[in-house]
Fold these 4 entries.
Entry 1:
Amino acid sequence: MRVLVTGGAGFIGSHIVDGLLAAGVDVRVLDSLDPAAHGSTAPALDPRAELLVGDLADAATATAAVDGVDAVCHQAAKVGLGVDFGDAGDYVHNNDAGTASLLAALWRREFSGRLVLASSMVVYGEGRARCRSHGVVTPPPRRASDLDAGDFDWHCPDAGCTRQLAWVAVGESTPLDPRNVYAATKLHQEHLCFLWGREAGARVLALRYHNVYGPRMPRGTPYAGVASIFRSALAAGTLPEVYEDGAQTRDFVQVRDVARANLLALTHLDPPSGAYNIASGEPHTVLDMARAIAGSHDAALAPVVTGAWRLGDARHIVASPARAAEELGFRASVGFDEGMAEFAAAPLRPAAAAVGN
C-alpha cells in the first residue's frame, strides 16, 4: 500500500508519516516546505518517505503526487486564526485552491481509493449551548462591545432572556457555523472532498481535529495553535498571556493520538464516509492548559490573564468523540497531565513569524 500525505513534513503530517512507516506502509510526502511552518531547518521527516517539494495548487505538482498511490491523507493547509482579514487570500490559495487541485488530479487519474481530510473543530463556530430556561440553543456571535466590557460568556439568544449559557458537547451532526476565514476554508475543503467522493465513488473521511498539541509544533508564529504560543513564550523567557478570562473551554488532543486516528481512518476495513471528531473527550480551560505548561517549567510560574480578545475566537467548543470510537475504534490514549508535561519540555520547530504559512 502506498499513501500520499500532503503536508507530510509538517507538525501533524510528520507524525502521521511516522505511524504509517511503522505499520509497513509505503509513504510519499508532498510539502511546500513553507518557511512559516518549517523555518530554515530541515523537515522532521523519516528518510524512508519519498519527499516531493512543491505547491499542491499547481496542477503538474498535484498530478505527480497522486501517481501510483492507493490512498490520500490530505493534511496540507494554512492553519490558525492568522493576523487579520488580509490573510484571506493565502488561506483560500492554500486550503481551497490546493484541495481543488488535488481532487482534480485524482479525478483525472480516475482514482476511487480512500481520502482522509484534516478538518477542524472550527467548522462548528461556537458550537451548541444550553439555557436553563430554553434548552439547547445556538450561541449568538459575541459582540465587540460586550467583550470590551469584559463580558466574555454567552447569553441566551431568546428575546428577553439574559441567562448565561453552558456548553454542550457537539456531535458531527451539529449545524456548522464557521466564524473566521480559516474556518470557512476548512468547511469548503470538506464540501469539495465529499462532492468529489460522491462523483468518484470514493470513501471520504473528514477528521475534525480539536486542539492538537505536542512535539514538532512550530514556534514564534501567529499561525500556530494556542499551546504552541504559550510554549514559545516560556522558551523565550516570558510568561504565557491568556486572552479573555482564561475560562474558554477546549479539548486538547495529543498529536500522536491524532496520527493514530489518521492511521485508523486510512486502514480500518470499512468506516463509513463522513465527518469524525478527533478529540480526547477530556475538556479543559485555556487557563488550565497555560498553568499546566508553565507549572511544568517552574511551579512558581503563573500565566498572565490579560482580558484581551479576538473576535474570531470561540468561547467554548467541546466535542463528543463517540462516533470515532464506534466507527474507527479510536480513543485517545494520552491524558492531559501526561501530555502537557511532555509538551512543556519537547522541542518546537523554529518558524518565521513574518512569513505566511
Note: Confidence is low (pLDDT under 50) at residues 353-357.
Entry 2:
Amino acid sequence: MGDLGALRARLLELDRVVVAFSGGADSAFLAAVAHRTLGPERASALTAVSPSLAPEEEEECRSLATEWGLRWVPVLTDELADPAYAANDGQRCFHCKSALMDVAVPVAEAEGATVVLGVNVDDLGEHRPGQQAAAERGAVFPLVDAGFTKADVRAASHALGLRTWDKPAAACLASRLPYGTPVTLGALAEVAAAESALRRLGFRQLRVRHYGDLARLEIPVEELALAVERREEVVAAVSGAGYRYVTLDLEGFRSGNLNYHPGLEPLPPWSKDNRRFGQDIRP
C-alpha cells in the first residue's frame, strides 16, 4: 500500500525535483505532493506540449497549476519530427519519452534538480518502453519507491482534497493509433476533435481508436445503451471530426488495449481473429 510519508521522505531525499506533469491523476498527485513537501522553490512542474497532447489536457495543466500554486513550465516538443516516433512501432513511447527528457533534463540541470515521473507500481507490469527511456536519462519514479498503486494514488488524492482523484485515465493521442499506423498531424487532430466532441455530449471516460476513415469508440460498458440511444448525436460528433465510419466497441472501454504485444502483428479491427482490438461491427 502506498505510504504518503515514504513519498514525502523520498522527495525530501531528492531535494529538488521537476515533475513531468501531464495533468492526469498520477502526475497531478505527484506534483501536488512535491509542491506541498518542497515548496515552489525546490519543486516545479513541466508539461510537454505537442500535437499528441489533447488540448483539454494542456488547459487542465494550466488550470491545476493556477489552483495549486505550482511553478509550472509548458515546453514545446516535436516528436513527429522523429521518423522513428512517426513510424509508430512498438517503441513509440520510448521515442516520446526521449523527446520529453530532451526538454526536461536541461530544465532540471539548471536547477540542480531530478526529473520525476508519475509512474506507479501497476504501470510496471505493462508494456511501457517510455519508462526505460526516462530511467536511462536519469528520471526517478517516487510513486514506485513509495509503493503507490493506481488505487492508492486516487485514495490519497481524495484524502488530500485534490479534484483529480477521480479523473478518468488519460493517455497521449498517439495511443489511439494501432502500432504500424503512421502518426500524423491529421490523425492526431481527428482523434482530438472526435474525443472533444464526445466529451461535450457528456461521455467522460472514452477512447476514439483510429483506423483511417473508421473510428472505433470505447466507452464504459454501462454507457453503451446510452450511446446507442443517442446514436445520431454520437455519429454526428465523430463524423464531424473527419471520420466516415463510426463503430462502437461492444467490449467497452479498455485502457491501453492497443499496447504492443511482441510477436503479434496488428490486424484490422473487424478481423475475426483479432481479440486485441475488440468486437467491432464493420459498417
Note: The CA atoms of residues 219 and 256 lie 13 Å apart.
Entry 3:
Amino acid sequence: MWTLADKTLKSRLFLGSARYPSPEILQQSIIASSTEVVTVSLRRESAQQNTGNRFWDYLRQTGVHILPNTAGCLSVREAILTAHMSRELFQTHWIKLEVIGNDDTLQPDPFGTVEAARILCAEGFEVFPYTTDDLVVAEKLVSVGCRIIMPWGSPIGTGQGLRNLEALKTLRQRLPGITLVVDAGIGRPSHATQALELGFDAVLVNTAVALAHDPVRMAQGFAAAVDAGRWGYEAGMMEASSRAQASSPTVGIPFWHQEDAH
C-alpha cells in the first residue's frame, strides 16, 4: 500500500485511456492491469461520438480513480480553463497538468507549466504536472505547491524508455519527499521495471498497452513489471562490479596436489 495525494493505493501502475480499439478492450485492460488510476482527457470524454457514453460507463464500472488531464493545451489560460471544466465534469480536484510547448516533440512548456501549476495549486487542485527530467523545473513546481511530479522518460508516444537515466536518478535523489511518476516514453514492461528500480513511485503507460497486438495481455505484463521493479528497489539491489566474484564459498575447498595435476 502507498499514498498518492489523498488516496491509498495498491498498484503503482497508471493507465491512459486513449487509442484503445474499443471501450470494452479498455475496460478489460484496466481490470487486467490492476490499476487504480486512469487518466482521461476532457476533450476525449466530451467529444460527440457514438461511443462517448459507453466509454464513460465502462470507466465507472471499474471503480478506478479518474485523473483528468489537460492534454493538447498550448497556453496557461487554456490549461486552467480545462482544469476547471474537468473538476466539474469528473468531480475530482485531481488534475494532470499539460502545457505543451512544442508541437513536434510534445515537450512541455516549462514556464507555462510552472505558472499554471501555481494558479491551480492556489485554487485547491492536486496538480500532477507533466514535465521533462529537468531538476530546476521540478524544483520550481514543488515551490509553487506540487506534491507530485511526472517527468517524462522520453517524448510522448515514442516508446524509447528512460532516455536520461542520470537525470532521473538526480530527481529521485534530490526530491526524496516528492511523489515521482514517470510519464511518457514507456514502451516495454522492462522500461517500467527500470523506473521502479530507480525508486520512482509509479509509471503512467498508455500507447504501449493501447496499441499492443493484445492490450489485455500487455496490461498484465506491465502489472507484473511494476511489481518486480518495486520489490527489487525495496529489497536493495546489488551494485554492479567490474570484478567477477564467486557465488559459491571458496573457504574449505581442497585444492589438487601439484603431483595430481600431472
Note: Confidence is low (pLDDT under 50) at residues 46-50.
Entry 4:
Amino acid sequence: MRIGFIGLGRMGANMVRRLLRDQHEIVAYNRTAEKTKEIAGEGADAAFSIEELVSKLEKPRAVWIMVPAGDATEAQIAELLEHLEPGDTIIDGGNSNFHDDQRRHPKLKEQGIDYVDAGVSGGIWGLANGFCLMVGGEPAPVKRLEPVFLSLAPQDGYLHVGGPGAGHYVKMVHNGIEYGLMQAYAEGFEIMHASDYALDLAAISKLWNHGSVVRSWLLELAERAFAGDQDLTHLKGWVADSGEGRWTVQEAIDKDVPAPVITLSLLTRFRSRQPDSYGAKVLAALRNEFGGHAVKTE
C-alpha cells in the first residue's frame, strides 16, 4: 500500500522502517529535512513539503500523522486540508485527546475526508517487536487501511476498538494503567534497595519474569536499567507526564469511577519535579507547633 507519513521522530521513523520492510510504499515528510533524507536512504520516497507529499500519493490518498498532540497535530491537519480531496483519509497516530478526535471527525467528514485515530504503543522497541495498535474510526476507512495496521502490529496486536475517538480513548486508559504499574514497581524496588540485604535488583527483575504473577515487559526493562548500576546514580528522580495520565484521571472523575492508584501515581510524578515540597514544609511546621517535634532546617 502507498501511504504518506508525517513525523519521523523515534517512533515515527521506526514505523516507516517497519512498513518499508513489509514492502509498503512510503512518502515521508519531516519538518527537519535531515530526517527525511535519512529515511529516504532506507527506501522511502522523500517529500520536503506537504504539497509535495500529497502530490506523490495516488487517490484516494492516506496520510499518517505522527507528531506531538495538540497544536502541532492541529496545524498539520489544517495544512493537509489545503491539499487533500474528498475520499482521502487522515490517520492521527499521536497521543491526541479523544475529545479532539470527536471534534475533528464530523468537521472532516463535512469535507469528505475520512479520519482515523490510532493509539500506538511500543515505543522505541516497536521496530523489532511490533506496535500495539488501538484504532478508532468508521469501519470503511479502517478496513481500507488494515494492510498498514497489520504490518505495523505483531500478531494479534491490532484491534478496531470502536468509532471515532475510541482508539485514543483506549490508548489513554492504557497509559493510565501504565502509570500505576510503573509506580508499583518503583515502590517495590525502592523498598528492596533500602533493605539490609545485599539484593541484586537486576537479577530479581529477571527472576520475576520466569513464572511470577508480576512478570512483564516492564520488568525486562527494569533488568536493563539496573544492570551495571542499580543505584541509578546517573539519573535524577524527575518524572514527566505526557498528558494521558491526567486525561485518564479526569475521565474517571467525569464518570464517577474511583481510580486511586492511577491518580496517586500521577500525583507522585508531580512531586518528583519539586526540588523541595512546600507542603512537606507546612507539615513539618505544624508538627513542630503543636507537639514540639524536631524539624530540620536549611
Note: The mean pLDDT is 95.
